[in-house]
Structure formats: structure tokens, C-alpha cells
Design brief:
The complex is a heterotrimer of chains A (253), B (288) and C (258). Chain A is an all-alpha fold and 253 residues long. Chain A contains 10 helices and no strands. Chain C is mainly alpha-helical. Classes of the chains: A mainly alpha (253), B alpha/beta (288), C mainly alpha (258).
């Protein structure tokens, strides 16, 4: 516990130093004021934005899109991935096809979505899910496809039913892979949420940043960026904490 | 007392067992091992993969409640014999039967202890829950599980470690968890594939004695594959020696050493040493 | 083409995924010819192929692809260059690693695309803006992966450096860099994929150059055939870049084997 406390302390110090440097740079005119506002100004803007609720609303909208999209693409990705990973024929046939989709930018589905139905709230959700499902899906397929062969034999020796084996052996065995895939999907969900906001102009931090730039409201722009960092950091850290709990058995104490 | 060797087996040419002779092995209480219906019977079993013959015309009988050790150099098909009894493989010719019934698929009354114990346990489950897996598979009613699991854990001496994860245990303890899980199946037969091979000598000795103790208590029939001749002689009522290329029975030898066995005295017993000398060539690749 | 053990050529290629792809293409073709709605918004595989051919011949594809690749390469040069340098230092000197850990953890999750409006104000639309957004995106994985690569180095090599009393520059160039080349190559492949991805995304969102922009134009003009054609080109480019990098990775690693 002591070591972690030291780490956290160090991190706070280093971030504090960074903030000081930022402040100094703006104060000393090292960066053009018209481009980079002072951290104090940004902070005031954040506080004001929360007090009058506008920033809060936009932050909540982005977080909401991200989380809803993430839950949906996780459920879909795990369900489909489990089916494909377990059934050898499906795996042989589909896994290579799915791999083809890997290098595609998730955002590339947006023009298609725009052409088909336009980018409203529902379409945005579809776009987020479609773009972010691949890490979760591919990781789940891999997790189910790589069950320790010895455990398969143990399952046979114990005369387990197929369902029992999937629930008691295959699924927990795939858990590390699935959780890693879900973490990547979460990152993509945030990115896609921001992009859909930016393009469709809906309520959210993405559109905030765009609108602020159009009116040269640098404080607002930076406020949006800071909040996006916080969301990304908090969601990732939260998921990592859950992952550590679930996978506690991996580290012998 | 003569030791039967090499081309002498205890099967008649027709495949039936020879009648009992003097100096037979005994159970712990001194009573002779019964010549009852065999627990495991191999009847002219052959297993080939295309041109490759792994086992050729293997026949033997295994009596219930005995420890039988299968030895032989690598490539003689020891593990294949085990897997045939386990029901993981099917013979190309001949008949494999367990308790009188032909062996077609794995069943719960035949338990398998693998050599790579760390891979055979579920790392995300505690010791207790790993043993519980056997009962869950058998759909044992929940209220009966606790007592059974605790009994098994006590039997292998792991009561105090029930809440630990496999990654927190030593190799020997992990193997004991696997044994406990197998025993929780309440099997008629315990198949063991070089179970102590990956352990250090001291742990091996401890587990050998524990196996004998458990076997005496429970009366399980044990088929134990090992490449260690001394281990085979120490543990077994009987030794099945296989020869390679193709795998076939080289000798079926009764081990008339008294029970309970003792790591010091049994291994210094003149009969032990004599059998060891005479069987040495079989397991070290010499052909007769 | 080599034959397998039994002399049958077709056995080497698994028919199952090919069958799936063929089926999907067939469904796509049938779906488009069947309904009016879909033909307004999507195009048949045949039409896409035609559009693709036309675009290639007109030079549009090459121009756009060159623009995208240029930005990706420049962005990588800046981002990986800076990131690898910092990663090297933090791998060699624990105080550096401790100092950057906090800022890295806080800044890395910021989606690079969110920087587009800021960069547009600073640098206007065009290559420079795209380059810096890409640089930001690849900087963080470059730092982390290079740091990991140095940390996973054989400690004995560093002891050799101490024994020879090598200065920092010599230590890095003679011992550290050669030792971590395999992992650096893996890092480059990862960074390249991200660079290409971000480039296309920035072009989709706002930058009026490159494949992403062309695809977006086609979508907004309700011309589905060229839009899907550009999608295919984007996918092909991604595979091609990956294939080239994997091949060079193998070359480099093979050349290093004793």
C-alpha cells in the first residue's frame, strides 16, 4: 500500500508541476494569449459552466453516449464473440472476415450512416456501437477460441454438459481477454461519441469544442478538452479497478 | 519365490487369466487380492493411426481395489492405454471394458489425474471451488456438496487452504487439489498420468504415501502410468510393463511386497531390489 | 503456388471464409437490386467497382491517398520521434519515468480528434494541422512502448555499458537501440495503424484533403458508389500498409538473427 501511495503522490506533484509550467508560460507570454488561455481562466470557466449547468449538461451527454454505446457494444460483442469463438465452423469461416475489418477507421462508417439516414441521436448511437464493437468482439472470439486444452479434457472427464462447460470454464477463461477488449472498446466509444457530436452538432463536449473554436472562445475550448481528458482518465481507471478485482486470482499474494 | 518376467505373463494364450499361484500380493489386512470380475479388461486391443500402430494386441485384466502401475520406455503407449480406459480414445481393434461394459466415452466414475496440474485446475477458483466443480458437473444437490468437499479436502490434507487460489499453492499442493477433485467424483477407477513427475523428490515421496493411504481407505482401483520403475514397484500391487514399436505387453508382474509400504524399508527390501534389477532392462529400452 | 502434402493446391486456402465473403457480396448485390430505398443510399458491388475504376483512372484516388499518406508519415515522424526519445529517457532513468507518469496518464485519454478545432485555429486547415493531430495521437503509445522496450532489455547489457564507462549517447546508440529494435518495429507498426486511422478521421471531420474528405464529399452529395469506392480504398490502404510493415519487420528481424 505504501508504494501505491508514493506513486499517487508523485503523480500529483508532476501534474501540479505541469500546471505551474502552463501558468508560467501564459503569464510570461511564452505562448500567444490568443491561443492558449491561462489555467486559472479555464478553471473559472469550468466552475461557471457547472454552476449554470451548461457544461454539466454537455459532459453528461458525452458520458451518456459513451456509456450506453459501450454497454451495447460490449453485450453484442461478447454474445457474438462467444458464439463465434465456441463453434469451430463459425470461427473458421468468420474470424478471418472479421479480421478484415480491423484496419478500418471506426469513423469511416459515419459517411455511410449520413448517406443512409442522416446523423441524429439514434444514428449516432448506432455509429458508436458499430465503430467500437470490434475490439470487444475480436477479443472475445480469441478468448473463447483459446481455452486451455487440458481444461477441455477435464470437462470431458467430468462429463460436463456443453452449457456447463461454457459457463463454468470457457467464459471465466476468456474473462481476461474480454475485459481487455472492453477497455479498448470504451476508448473507441469516447472517440466516436466526440466525433458524432462534432459532426452532428448535438449537445456534447465534441460540439462544445467546435463551437468554442468558431467563436475563438479559447477558455471554453480548453475547458472542453480538460473535461474530455477527465472523462477518458476516469472511465479507464474505473474499468482497470474492476478488472483488477475480477482478475485478482492471477496475482499470488 | 520366483518372480515372473519377460515373456511370462499371467494370461493364458487364450487371453484368460492364469489360475492363482502361491506368493500372491495381498491387501493391507493380509487377505489375498480377490480374483473377482476385473475392473478393467483389455482384450487384444490394437490402436493404429493409418500406418502407425501405437498399440498392438494388448491384453490384461485389472482387479478391483488394486494399484496397477504401467511402465515402459517412451513411445510404448503408456498414456494411450490410460486414454483408452478414460474413454478419450477408441480402439481400432479389440475391446476395452470397464466394470464389464465396453468403454465408449468418458464417464464420471473414471477420474483422471493429469501430470500438468497447474493446467488442469481452474485458476480463477479457490481450492474449495475447484473440488466443487466435480460435484457441480454431477449435479449433486447443493446441500450435500459441503460435507463431501470438506471430506475430500481433509483426505488430502488441504482443509486449511480451502480459500486459497491455485497460484498461491506449491506444486505438490496443486496436485493434491486435483486428486481431491477426482476423488470427489467418487470414482471406481483413478487414472493417473505420471502425476508426480513434475514434483521434487521429497514431495513425490510424501504424495506416494498419501496415495497409498487414500487408496486403502477408499478402495479405488488405480491405474498409474510412470516412467519411474522404483515408483511403480513401490506403489503397485502389480506392474504392467510395455515395450515400444509397436506398443505391446512385455510383462505382467505381481509385486508381492507387503502393505503398508514404507519409503525406507520397502525400498531396501531384498525382493524390491531383486525385482528392480530384473525389470531394469525392460524400462530402459533393452529388448529381450 | 506450393502444393500441400497430398499435392492438392486448394487445400492451402481455407474455403470457409471465402465462402462467407462471397455470400455477403451476393446478398449485397441482391439487396441493392431488390429495394428502392437501399439503391438510393447504397450502391451495388458492381457499381462500386466501376466507380473505383473511374476514380483510379482519373487520378483522384492516387491524389487523395498521397495526401493522406503524407500526413500520416509526417505525423509519425514528429510523434514517434519525440515519443521514442522521451520513452528512451524514461526507460533508462527511473526519475524521468516517475515524472512523466502522471501527465501521461492524464493526457493520453484525450481523444486526438478533439484537438482538431484548436489546431485549426493555430495552423489553419491543411497538412500542418493534420500532422500535429496525428503526432499527438502517436506520441503516447510511442512513449509507453519505447519505455517498455527499454525496461525489458537485458539488464546485463546495461551493466556492460557501466563497465565500459560509456557516455549516454554511446550507450544508447551502441547498446540500447540495437537491443530494442524488435520491439521498436512492433511499436512502429502500431503507430502506423493509428496514424493512418487518425488521418482519415481528421479528413472525415473537417480537413479538406485526403481520402476521408473525398469519402465525406461523396456521402454529402448522395453519390453512394464513389463513397463506397473510397471506403474500399481506405480499407485497402490499411491492409497494404500493415502488410508492408509486417514484411519489413520480418526482414529486419531475420537480418538480426545470428
Amino acid at each position: 500500500m505504501g508504494r501505491r501511495a508514493v506513486h499517487i503522490l508523485t503523480d500529483i506533484c508532476s501534474i501540479g508541476t505541469l500546471l505551474l509550467l502552463w501558468y508560467a508560460a501564459t503569464r510570461l507570454g511564452l505562448v500567444p494569449r490568443v491561443l492558449v488561455p491561462s489555467p486559472l481562466v479555464v478553471w473559472d470557466r469550468i466552475v461557471a459552466g457547472f454552476v449554470d449547468g451548461i457544461l454539466l449538461e454537455q459532459m453528461a451527454s458525452t458520458v451518456g453516449s459513451m456509456l450506453v454505446g459501450w454497454l451495447m457494444c460490449s453485450l453484442l460483442g461478447i454474445a457474438l464473440g462467444a458464439l463465434i469463438g465456441i463453434w469451430p465452423l463459425a470461427r473458421r469461416a468468420l474470424a478471418p472476415v472479421l479480421e478484415l475489418f480491423r484496419p478500418l477507421p471506426p469513423a469511416a462508417v459515419i459517411p455511410v450512416a449520413i448517406a443512409v439516414l442522416g446523423l441524429d441521436r439514434e444514428m449516432s448511437l448506432f455509429v458508436i456501437v458499430f465503430g467500437a464493437i470490434w475490439p470487444a468482439l475480436l477479443a472475445t472470439v480469441h478468448g473463447f477460441a483459446t481455452v486451455e486444452p487440458r481444461l477441455v479434457e477435464v470437462g470431458r472427464a467430468l462429463d460436463m454438459s456443453r452449457l456447463q462447460f461454457i459457463a463454468k470454464v470457457a467464459l471465466p477463461n476468456a474473462a481476461p481477454d474480454i475485459l481487455a477488449g472492453m477497455r479498448l472498446s470504451l476508448v473507441v466509444c469516447l472517440v466516436m461519441a466526440v466525433i458524432t457530436d462534432m459532426i452532428s452538432g448535438q449537445v456534447g463536449l465534441g460540439s462544445l469544442v467546435v463551437l468554442a473554436s468558431r467563436s475563438f472562445d479559447m477558455a471554453g475550448l480548453f475547458a472542453g478538452l480538460v473535461l474530455l481528458s477527465v472523462i477518458g482518465f476516469a472511465s479507464n481507471a474505473g474499468l482497470q479497478a474492476i478488472e483488477r478485482r475480477v482478475l485478482a486470482y492471477q496475482r499470488p499474494s | 519365490m520366483a518372480v515372473m518376467l519377460a515373456h511370462q505373463t499371467d494370461l493364458l494364450p487364450t487371453g484368460e487369466p492364469k489360475p492363482a499361484t502361491a506368493g500372491k500380493p495381498q491387501l493391507a489386512d493380509g487377505s489375498p487380492v480377490p480374483d473377482t470380475a476385473p475392473m478393467i479388461a483389455f482384450d487384444r486391443v490394437t490402436l493404429s493411426y493409418g500406418p502407425l500402430t501405437v498399440l498392438s494386441d494388448v491384453s490384461f485384466r485389472i482387479n478391483p481395489g488394486t494399484v496397477n502401475c504401467v511402465i515402459g520406455p517412451s513411445g510404448c503407449g503408456k498414456t494411450t492405454v490410460l486414454r483408452l480406459v478414460g474413454g478419450f480414445l477408441q480402439a481400432t481393434a479389440g475391446n476395452v471394458s470397464v466394470a464389464g461394459e465396453q468403454r465408449l466415452r468418458p464417464t464420471r466414475d473414471v477420474a483422471v489425474v493429469f501430470q500438468d496440474y497447474s493446467r488442469a485446475l481452474l485458476p480463477w477458483r479457490t481450492v474449495y471451488d475447484n473440488v466443487s466443480l466435480a460435484l457441480e458437473a454431477a449435479r449433486t444437490p447443493r446441500n450435500e456438496r459441503g460435507d463431501l468437499i470438506n471430506t475430500m479436502l481433509a483426505l488430502v490434507g488441504l482443509r486449511d487452504h480451502a480459500r486459497k487460489f491455485p497460484s498461491q499453492l506449491s506444486g505438490g499442493m496443486q496436485q493434491r487439489v486435483q486428486i481431491a477433485r477426482c476423488l470427489a467424483q467418487q470414482p471406481k477407477i483413478l487414472l493417473m498420468d505420471e502425476p508426480f513427475g513434475a514434483l521434487d523428490a521429497m514431495t513425490r515421496g510424501v504424495l506416494q504415501d498419501e496415495l497409498l493411504r487414500i487408496q486403502q481407505e477408499r478402495g479405488v482401483t488405480v491405474l498409474f502410468v510412470t516412467h519411474d520403475l522404483e515408483e511403480a514397484l513401490y506403489l503397485g500391487h502389480r506392474v504392467i510393463a510395455l515395450a515400444p514399436n509397436p506398443g505391446r505387453v512385455h510383462a505382467l508382474v505381481d509385486v508381492p511386497l507387503p502393505f503398508p509400504r514404507n519409503q525406507l524399508t520397502t525400498r531396501e527390501d531384498p525382493l524390491f531390489l531383486q525385482m528392480r534389477r530384473e525389470l531394469f532392462g525392460l524400462t530402459h529400452g533393452h529388448t529381450v | 503456388m506450393p502444393a500441400d502434402r497430398n499435392g492438392r493446391l486448394w487445400r492451402l486456402v481455407d474455403p470457409a471464409p471465402i465462402g462467407v465473403i462471397a455470400l455477403l457480396l451476393l446478398l449485397w448485390q441482391l439487396d441493392v437490386s431488390g429495394s428502392d430505398f437501399v439503391s438510393d443510399t447504397l450502391a451495388s458491388p458492381g457499381a462500386v467497382l466501376l466507380a473505383l475504376g473511374r476514380l483510379v483512372l482519373d487520378g483522384d484516388v492516387l491524389r487523395a491517398a498521397a495526401a493522406t499518406l503524407t500526413a500520416a508519415l509526417l505525423g509519425m515522424a514528429v510523434g514517434v520521434g519525440l515519443g521514442a526519445a522521451l520513452g528512451l529517457l524514461s526507460g533508462l532513468f527511473p526519475p524521468v519515468a516517475a515524472a512523466i507518469r502522471g501527465p501521461v496518464v492524464l493526457l493520453r485519454p484525450l481523444p486526438a480528434i478533439a484537438l482538431v478545432p484548436f489546431m485549426t485555429i493555430a495552423l489553419g486547415l491543411g497538412l500542418a494541422m493534420e500532422t500535429w493531430v496525428i503526432a499527438f495521437a502517436v506520441f503516447w503509445p510511442a512513449v509507453t512502448l519505447t519505455q517498455q522496450a527499454v525496461r525489458q532489455m537485458d539488464l546485463q547489457l546495461l551493466e556492460v555499458a557501466d563497465a565500459l564507462e560509456l557516455g549516454l549517447l554511446a550507450r544508447v546508440s551502441k547498446l540500447v537501440l540495437p537491443a530494442i529494435v524488435p520491439r521498436l518495429v512492433v511499436m512502429l507498426r502500431f503507430a502506423a495503424a493509428i496514424a493512418l486511422l487518425i488521418a482519415v478521421t481528421v479528413e472525415l471531420v473537417s480537413n479538406p484533403r485526403g481520402l476521408g474528405h473525398e469519402m465525406m464529399l461523396a456521402a454529402e452529395a448522395f453519390t453512394p458508389a464513389p463513397m463506397l469506392a473510397y471506403l474500399v480504398v481506405i480499407a485497402l490502404l490499411g491492409w497494404a500498409v500493415n502488410w508492408v510493415l509486417v514484411a519489413s519487420e520480418r526482414r529486419v528481424l531475420a537480418g538480426m538473427r545470428p
